[in-house]
Every structure is written in structure tokens, then in C-alpha cells.
TrEMBL record:
Metabolic or biological pathway: Glycan metabolism; cellulose degradation
This protein's UniProt keywords: Carbohydrate metabolism, Cellulose degradation, Glycoprotein, Glycosidase, Hydrolase, Polysaccharide degradation, Secreted, Signal
Enzyme Commission number, as recorded: 3.2.1.21
Listed GO MF terms: beta-glucosidase activity
Source organism per UniProt: Sordaria brevicollis
Keyword Signal attached: yes
Listed InterPro entries: Cellulose_deg_GH3, Fn3-like, GH, Glyco_hydro_3_C, Glyco_hydro_3_C_sf, Glyco_hydro_3_N, Glyco_hydro_3_N_sf, Ig-like_fold
UniProt-recorded name of the protein: Beta-glucosidase cel3A
């Protein structure tokens, strides 16, 4: 049996009742979409293929052109096999250009919850909405950019720089989306880590780093039977990603056993034959909307006719695409395309839960939070209110005006409504009899007036980023620095000077440097509210007033200074990926750099103790040996060790803790990071309650990529095991020997 495993909750009320039950649930969820389902889909695809002309086949693999169909990507219908006009639509947090859809939280906020149930539900609802509007292929989720560069403009679309956390989130999201019969698309494959020069840059990476960091979450995606993958704009080791034999044919299709199809990012194709012969299966959008040449369509027909692209390769492309369509059973009763349909249902509940449970409490001196019916509150900052021009005033959210809910670019949607912080605070204040002094500006003049005399002053700051085709306030996608926008540091300074109970609320696409803010004695609390989308204010009020204890944990490191990350934006034509495996906390650990707030950190309104570590292992040293299944060698997915730990809520209020498992490899594995996340669980605990987290390690979790053997290898020796509340707050230590 080939099991994909992760931390499962023991003795909890959630679906993951115990490790066995959890696995059974997982297998049940996988039923109908495993290898046998691919085989069935392929046999349907082969039969359909025999009824297609060459022109039909070329049409199936070629988009009709930008703005020439109802969706951002479209291919023509093929009546003879009942194949529809295929609709491909962004994106990772909902239906782009939808008329009445939910603006789900960005991926980074979902990761910040560390809650697989919420992440999965988000995926299920994404799929439900995509199907409801007739979208066949939803262009998400995102595992690239992985986020090695904290300034990376699109990092917020994905799940953060840890490959394990991203891998779990990819799996849950894909299985959720595809459970509703919608094809997911894992993107952008691969090493598209920055917006600057993204369409020309050459990402040069070593084999081991490719496997252990960047490819790792794609293995999860393939294991979860993702139907499609989008190749990225950049070059990989000298060849364009969309015509790179090594990554498309070698890594993705052969090594990971990917059965679906590779589509190009929009205009990421460079040549007719190179793309066809090196593993790309569908070109998007198929037009020259950026002044580029059309490369497939008639050109592909000619290339096949003159033998530059084989008929077998064209058939393979078509079979892969049709197999994805049959796998998701889109051949029967699929809704017609209507992007304007109202498909929101009750999905805003997931948005609020993810927005709320993804909030990370970074500082809470004197227990200033939760608020206790203050008589007067100051609310300061332009991002405390909705954009005065309208919540959707800026195309693809391409501005940072008013409250921030998501970054900008193709991975955005129209907000159906937007609850800004002030909206929700006002409602709460009315029921408490609290007076609010609002100053919805970032100018320091007027701050003293608004902030002094209030029981507490809430000051709102932001940092935004997005996709490079839009420039916002001079920012061309990637952030030029990690400072808050709109003079946020000065604004906080002014507020903190006027009010010694200042609470800073940060909405941001990624880390910012907080040193100036933390140096203000008046700053008593820092609430990292991330990117909460349409439920921005409601989620915040839930936490500020203690309706729930904050339970988010940082999905990335917050450094003391930008240079501490050691992974800057590359301005030249090449990114050598010299940091190798050592990104984010791996880098800080290796270099002995103290972060300001470490990966995995987050406070609560209650306290937790850790006890009773137990470690069992059946692992043996050596190389992976199984047959290839979706996701790679089958034995890599087998459980080889189990670790349990008990967490108790010793405080006075309900809360949720995220025990995290970090593994240290034995020295026989050369140059591995000092520790690597390999398990987590979210335990909801009443005061005095204890629960046990069970972390099942798969062989892949304790393997490294041996470049000489070209295989995953379990090293012999002693593995360190640490369980704790963050990557630097490790409460329990143990080991197992291999
Ligand atoms: O949407 C599908 C994938 O497209 C890539 O982003 C493209 C984005 O969708 C598209 O809106 C944008 O078009 C702009 C164009 O680049 C610009 O020259 C023109 O002036 O304005 C257009 C917007 O109106 O192009 C983007 C590519 O450059 C994404 O990378 C991918 O993730 C999407 O799934």
C-alpha cells in the first residue's frame, strides 16, 4: 500500500481521528483518482484519440488566443468526441474575473494556519466554485515561487519557503479542488522565484537542491494526481522551462510519474519543435497578445507533417490532456461556462476561518490583548478602511490603497464584498459602547490628536507586492526592500509616542523588517494579520477581542535585517541559486543568525506544555527501490517512523497549538540543513485538555538526494527528532537510529 502521510491528530474531534483512521480516510479520498483511475482515463483517451483527425489533435493542444474565448485560456470544442471548449481560468484563490465568486484567502494565509482541515476545505470550495461557473481547469495551486527570496512579488500566491509545508498544502488543495471534478494546475514549474526579469532569467540550480527543495512539493502534487502543471517563464540550467527535456520529461514525467499534461505559462513558449519535443503538451493562450509569434496551431501541424515533431508525440500530448479530462469525469454533465454565476454559497466561512486562524500574534506585552471593552480606541492608518475608490477599483488588485487583502496580478479575484478593519471594529465598538477615533491616513500630522487619551491605539501598516506586469507606486512586482509601505515605520513611531498602548496590525504579502517598530516602548503588541482577503476586519476582530485565541504560526522567517536572508533579487541574467538548500530558516540555522521571529513562531492567549515524546522506527538505510507511481518511487511514500508527543493547554482559555516536528539528519548525509520540518498538527485544546499529535514519517521525509546514485537515499546513523512550538522553541528531543 502506498501511503501519503503527515501529522494526524490523535484523540481529536477532527476527521483525523488516529493514525490508522487518518490513513484510511486518505485512501478513501484517493479512491477513484489513483493509478487505476489514470489507467481507466487513459483507455478512454486512447479510444477517443482514434476518432480524431490531426487537425483535431492540434486544436486540443493549442489555445484559441488571448481574449478570444470566455476564459483566460480556451481550446476549441471537438464535437466528434463530445469534448467541450475547454475553459482554463485563474487562479489560486478563486475565479478571476468572476461575477459573484468568493475571494478566498491567498495561499500564504492558508499556510499560516497550519491547519490541513481548513486548507483542504478551501480547496474543496475552490473546486466547487470553479465547477459552478463551468471552469474545467483551475490555474492553481502555486508551489513556485517557493519563496526563497523574501522580496519575491508572487510569494503570497503559494504556501511559503518550506517544501514540506508547501507540499502538504499542495496535496490538500489539489485533492480538494479535484474532489469536485475540476482539474487543478500546479504552477509555475519551476525555479520562477522572482518577477524581475522573469521572462529572461536563467535559474541555475544543482541537482540536489532541485530535488530536496523545489521539486519536493511537486512530488506531493503529482502524488495527489494533479491533472496539469504549468511550466514557467524562466530558463532552468540554460533551457527555457517550457522546452526543458530534463525538467519536463526527466523529472516530472519520468521520475515523478506525472500522467497529466504540461501547459505553458501565458506566452512562455519559445519554439515550435523545442517545446513539443521536450515535454510541453499545451500552449497558452495561443495568441500573440504580447506581440509574440504563434508557435503551435498551423506551425505544429507543419512540424508534424514534415517529421520535426513525431505523430506519436502529438498523440501523447492529446492523450495526456484527454486523460485529465476523463480522470475528473468532465465528460459527463459538466456545467456550461458562466463566469458570472453566483457560486459563493457559504464559502465566506472558510475565508473568515483561514483569515482568522492564519493571524500570527508576534508580541503581546502586559497581555494588552485581548481587548477588554475599551472605552476609547484610536484606529489609525489608511489601511484601516476600504479603498475610497472602491474595493475593486484597481485592475487585478493593482494598487495598495485602503485595506489590504491580497497582492496583485493574475492570481487575484474581484472581492464580492470587503470588510475592512474599521468596519468590523465599529460594529464591535457599538455593542461595547466604545468610542473610536478614526484617522484613516498615513500622515503623522493629526496622530497625536487621534491617539492620545485612547485606552489603546491600533495602527495599521502594509507591504504589498505582485506580478510584474503591473507597477504599483513604483514597485514592479518584487518588493525593492522589506520596509512597510506608506511610511509605516514613522506612522507607528508617531502613534507609539502618543499612546503607550499601541497595537500594530500588519497586512503584508511577506516578511517586513520590524526593528524600528519594536524599538518603540509604546508598542505593546504586534499582530501579523497577513492577507485575509474579503474577511479582513472580521477575522481581526475575532482575534483582537479574544473570540478565539490567535493560532497562526509564521510560514516564513522575519529577520532583523534584509541582508540576513542571504537570497536577494537577482538583477542580472542569471540566478545561480548559490544558497542551495539553505533558504529561510535553514539558512539562519546554518549561519547561526538570530531571526527576529523564527519560522513557525506564534503566540497564543493561553499556554501549552509538551510532554511524552515517543519515537519508533522501522527505517533501514539505502536507496529507494519501488516502482514509479504518481509522486515518484512507491516506497518513498511508505511510513518508516512514527513520533508522538502530548500537548496540554495549561492556560485559562481555549486555544490551538501547532506542534512541529523537525528532523536532523545523521552526518552520513552530507551537508544537510541543521533541521527540517517533517510534521505538524493543529490541536484544538480546551483549558486543561491534552491531546497527542502523531507524526508519521515517510521514507521521503528521511531521505536525501544522492547525486552520484541519482536516487533518494536513507542515510545510516542517528536521526535527531525535535518537537516544539516553533523552529527555535523545541521542547522535546529524541532520536532514532537507522
Ligand atoms: O492568466 C493566466 C496565466 O497568466 C500569467 O499572467 C498573465 C496575466 O494573466 C495577464 O493578465 C497579463 O496580461 C497583461 C500583459 O502581460 C501586459 O503586457 C498587458 O499590458 O496587460 C495585460 C493585462 O491586461 O499577462 C500575464 C503574463 O505576463 C501568469 O503568470 C499565470 O500565473 C497565469 O495563470
Amino acid at each position: 500500500m502506498h501511503l501519503r502521510t503527515f501529522a494526524v491528530l490523535a484523540a481529536s474531534s477532527l476527521a483525523w481521528a488516529d493514525s490508522t483512521g487518518g490513513e484510511k480516510n486518505h485512501e478513501a479520498r484517493q479512491a477513484g483518482s489513483g493509478p487505476a483511475a489514470w489507467d481507466a482515463a487513459y483507455s478512454q483517451a486512447s479510444s477517443a484519440l482514434s476518432r480524431l483527425s490531426q487537425q483535431d489533435k492540434v486544436n486540443i493542444v493549442t489555445g484559441v488566443g488571448w481574449n478570444k474565448g470566455p476564459c483566460v485560456g480556451n481550446t476549441p470544442a471537438i464535437g466528434s468526441i463530445g469534448y467541450p471548449q475547454l475553459c482554463l481560468q485563474d487562479g489560486p484563490l478563486g475565479i478571476r474575473f468572476g461575477g459573484s465568486v468568493t475571494a478566498f484567502t491567498p495561499g500564504i494565509q492558508a499556510a499560516s494556519t497550519w491547519d490541513v482541515e481548513l486548507i483542504r476545505q478551501r480547496g474543496v470550495y475552490l473546486g466547487a466554485e470553479a465547477k459552478g461557473v463551468g471552469v474545467h481547469v483551475l490555474l492553481g495551486p502555486v508551489a513556485g515561487a517557493l519563496g526563497k527570496i523574501p522580496n519575491g512579488g508572487r510569494n503570497w500566491e503559494g504556501f511559503g519557503p518550506d517544501p514540506y509545508l508547501t507540499g502538504i498544502a499542495m496535496s490538500e488543495t489539489i485533492e480538494g479542488i479535484q474532489s469536485n471534478g475540476v482539474q487543478a494546475c500546479a504552477k509555475h514549474f519551476i525555479l520562477n522565484e522572482q518577477e524581475t526579469n522573469r521572462e529572461t532569467i536563467n535559474s541555475v540550480v544543482d541537482d540536489r537542491t532541485m530535488h530536496e527543495l523545489y521539486l519536493f512539493p511537486y512530488a506531493d502534487a503529482v502524488h495527489s494526481n494533479v491533472a496539469s502543471v504549468m511550466c514557467s517563464y524562466n530558463k532552468v540550467n540554460g533551457s527555457w522551462a517550457c522546452e526543458n527535456d530534463k525538467i519536463q520529461n526527466g523529472l516530472l514525467k519520468k521520475e515523478l510519474g506525472f500522467k497529466g499534461y504540461v501547459m505553458s505559462d501565458w506566452n512562455a513558449q519559445h519554439t515550435t519543435n523545442g517545446a513539443a519535443n521536450n515535454g510541453m503538451d499545451m500552449t497558452m493562450p495561443g495568441s500573440d497578445y504580447n506581440g509574440r509569434t504563434i508557435l503551435w496551431g498551423p506551425q505544429l501541424n507543419t512540424a508534424v507533417n514534415n517529421g520535426q515533431v513525431s505523430k506519436a508525440r502529438l498523440d501523447d500530448m492529446v492523450k495526456r490532456i484527454l486523460a485529465g479530462w476523463y480522470l475528473l469525469k468532465q465528460n459527463t454533465g459538466y456545467p456550461a461556462i458562466n463566469l458570472k454565476a453566483n457560486v459563493q454559497g457559504n464559502h465566506k466561512e472558510n475565508v473568515r476561518a483561514v483569515a482568522r486562524d492564519g493571524i500570527v500574534l508576534l508580541k503581546n506585552d502586559d497581555n494588552i490583548l485581548p481587548l477588554k471593552k475599551p472605552s476609547k480606541l484610536a484606529v489609525i492608518g489608511s489601511s484601516s478602511v476600504v479603498n475610497p475608490a472602491g474595493r475593486n477599483a484597481c485592475t487585478d488588485r493593482g494598487c495598495n490603497t485602503g485595506a489590504l487583502g491580497m497582492g496583485w496580478g493574475s492570481g487575484t479575484v474581484e472581492y464580492p464584498y470587503f470588510v475592512a478593519p474599521y468596519d468590523a471594529l465599529k460594529t464591535r465598538a457599538q455593542s461595547d459602547g466604545t468610542t473610536i477615533n478614526l484617522l484613516s491616513s498615513d500622515s503623522t500630522s493629526g496622530v497625536a490628536n487621534a491617539a492620545s487619551g485612547a485606552d489603546a491605539a491600533l495602527v495599521f501598516i502594509t507591504a504589498d507586492s505582485g506580478e510584474g506586469y503591473i507597477t504599483v507606486e513604483g514597485v514592479t512586482g518584487d518588493r525593492p526592500n522589506l520596509d512597510p509601505w506608506h511610511n509605516g515605520n514613522q506612522l507607528v513611531q508617531a502613534v507609539a509616542q502618543a499612546n503607550k498602548n499601541t497595537i500594530v496590525v500588519v497586512h503584508s504579502t511577506g516578511p517586513i523588517i520590524l526593528e524600528t517598530i519594536l524599538a518603540q516602548p509604546g508598542v505593546k503588541a504586534v499582530v501579523w494579520a497577513g492577507l485575509p482577503s474579503q474577511e479582513n476586519g472580521n477575522a481581526l476582530v475575532d482575534v483582537l477581542y479574544g473570540l478565539v485565541s490567535p493560532s497562526g504560526k509564521l510560514p516564513y522567517t522575519i529577520a532583523k535585517q534584509e541582508s540576513d536572508y542571504g537570497a536577494p533579487i537577482q538583477r542580472g541574467g542569471t540566478d545561480q541559486f548559490t544558497e542551495g538548500l539553505f533558504i529561510d530558516y535553514r539558512h539562519f540555522d546554518k549561519q547561526g543568525i538570530a531571526p527576529r521571529y523564527e519560522f513557525g513562531f506564534g503566540l497564543s492567549y493561553t499556554n501549552f506544555t509538551y510532554s511524552s515524546l515517543s519515537v519508533t522506527s522501522t527505517a533501514s538505510p539505502g536507496a529507494a527501490t519501488g516502482e514509479t507511481i504518481p509522486g515518484g518511487r512507491s516506497d518513498l511514500w511508505e511510513i518508516v517512523a512514527t513520533i508522538t508527543a502530548t500537548v496540554k493547554n495549561t492556560g485559562g482559555v481555549q486555544g490551538a497549538e501547532v506542534p512541529q516536528l523537525y528532523i536532523t539528519f545523521p552526518s552520513s548525509a552530507p551537508s544537510t540543513p541543521p533541521k527540517q520540518l517533517r510534521g505538524f498538527a493543529k490541536l484544538k485544546l480546551a483549558p486543561g485538555e491534552s491531546k497527542t499529535a502523531t507524526f508519521n514519517l515517510r521514507k521521503r521525509d528521511i531521505s536525501y538526494w544522492d547525486t552520484a546514485r541519482q536516487n533518494w537515499v536513507v542515510p545510516s546513523g542517528s536521526f535527531g527528532v525535535a518537537v516544539g512550538a516553533s523552529s527555535r522553541d523545541l521542547r522535546l528531543n529524541g532520536k532514532f537510529d537507522v
